[in-house]
Amino acid sequence: MNPEIRAMFTASAGRYPTKAEQALLRDWAGRVDQRLAALEELRSHEEQIIRDTVDEVMRTYPDFERRYPSGRARATRDITLTLRYCGQAMLRADLKFLEDELLLWMSTMLRGVALTAKFIEDTYVILRRACKNDLSKESFELVRPALELCVSVLPGKREASA
């Protein structure tokens, strides 16, 4: 759940929400249709986004598949999972969900199989670019914060927020 909405519900437990709390809820709910439309666009373009991303990663790092057996399949799996979690974070308007449920674990796993921070960063920059190319401007702008969080957290350059 969106952290602001969760905090509002916690704060208003046992009483009626204030006008300001009601406005917060209306504002969040008023953008649900927009986020759902962007999520549907992301879903319908997922295959193309993933293909564009993986193909460009393989062109950028031509020895990747030689060094990592099943590299293309694993990259496809990881990028697909990441894109879906980005979509969930966008729908929820909750980047902390993305950090907590995927990025902390995935960052450890990617670095644990000896992928360099540069390779990881490049991969998720390429994913962000593929989304920008394949999605409408409105949908991209909604999912962009989640994609940028992937670029900053997954390589291990920035620890996720506490």
Which characteristics define this entry?
162 residues, 8 helices, elongated, mainly alpha, Globin-like
Report the end-to-end length measured between terminal Cα atoms.
17 Å
Task: Compute the number of helices.
Answer: 8
Number of domains: 1
Strand content: under 5%
Run of helices and strands: HHHHHHHH
Radius of gyration: 18 Å
Which range best describes the helical content: under 10%, 10-25%, 25-40%, 40-55%, 55-70% or over 70%? over 70%
CATH secondary-structure class? Mainly Alpha
CATH architecture: Orthogonal Bundle
User: What's the CATH H-level superfamily name?
Assistant: Phycocyanins
Return the structural class. Answer: mainly alpha
What does the main sheet amount to? none
Q: Could you say what the CATH topology is called?
A: Globin-like
Q: Kindly state the mean pLDDT as a whole number? A: 93
Total beta-strand segments:
0
The parts where pLDDT drops under 50 for at least 5 residues are none
The shape, in one word, is: elongated
